[in-house]
Design goal:
90 residues, alpha+beta, 39% helix
């Protein structure tokens, strides 16, 4: 299984988790782990996901998540797990 990492950062507001999770469910992306915190009014979430059975290509998921983030006032990034594994080897 190839895992993907999603990060969400922005000013805290109602519905951020709901909107991101709803989008992922519609795309058949499975959330394996989720961690979120709010510090001084800023929301930060990291998700580990399995996008192997996603209905959309990785690049499309990434672009649509970025657009979703803009629509809710957050920055959303989707990255492949391999990036983080490579950084640990350097």
């Amino acid at each position: 299984m190839r895992k993907s990492i999603i990060t969400v950062v922005g000013k805290d507001q109602v519905g951020i988790i709901s909107k991101v999770c709803t989008y992922l469910a519609q795309c058949n992306v499975n959330i394996l782990d989720i961690s979120q915190t709010i510090v001084d009014g800023y929301f930060n979430m990291m998700m580990i996901c399995d996008a192997n059975n996603a209905k959309k290509e990785f690049l499309t998921l990434s672009e649509e998540l970025e657009a979703l983030g803009k629509s809710i006032g957050c920055i959303i990034k989707l990255q492949r797990e391999e990036i983080f594994e490579s950084m640990q080897r350097i």
